[in-house]
Write a structure and sequence with these properties.
It is a single chain. This protein has 141 residues and is mainly β. The chain has a single domain, classed as Lipocalin (Beta Barrel), CATH 2.40.128. Helix content is 12%, strand content 48%. It is built from 2 helices and 8 strands. The protein has helices at residues 3-15, 53-56; strands at residues 26-33, 46-49, 58-63, 67-78, 86-91, 104-112, 115-124, 127-138. An 8-stranded antiparallel beta barrel has the order 1-2-3-4-5-6-7-8. The longest helix is centred in the N-terminal third of the chain and has 13 residues, at 3-15. It is globular and about 35 Å long.
Length: 141
């Protein structure tokens, strides 16, 4: 990712607001942002937040229209990266998830109406770092 694009994403993320769980209902297209290529959508990746997300406190990832992988919980928290930002934390360290997805957590901000910017936070022991950016856009039901 080009340094300029990376700094732009960092600034856009910092300028966003913390979404409330209730505004995330339905399916959202997930696109990886590289800054070098057009945004990439792997295997039809979507995040699903149920209609009662405020009560359930989570959702799941979906691939190829029907493969469910990566259940998650959500909660507003201060970022794990130590920059003091308030984010909506998407936690994959859940029972039933594969071991390789549990060290990954996402942090989400609303950057425009219906558009969200996230950053993947990878934990390797005590070390945490921003490993990628992604966008979420609401799909029509």
């Amino acid at each position: 990712m080009g340094l300029g694009r990376l700094l732009g994403l960092k600034k856009e993320f910092a300028g966003g607001t913390t979404p409330k769980p209730g505004e995330l209902r339905g399916r959202f297209a997930v696109r990886l942002i590289t800054g070098v290529t057009p945004d990439i959508r792997f295997f039809g990746h979507r995040k699903f937040f149920p209609p009662d997300v405020e009560q359930t406190g989570g959702g799941y990832n979906e691939f190829l229209g029907h493969i469910r992988l990566g259940d998650f919980s959500i909660a507003p928290v201060t970022s794990a990266l130590g920059d003091g930002q308030e984010v909506l934390h998407i936690n994959y360290n859940r029972p039933g998830n594969p071991f390789w997805i549990k060290p990954l957590n996402d942090e989400l901000k609303k950057v425009a109406p219906g558009r969200y910017l996230g950053r993947g936070v990878l934990r390797l022991g005590p070390v945490k770092f921003n490993s990628f950016y992604f966008s979420l856009e609401k799909e029509e039901d």
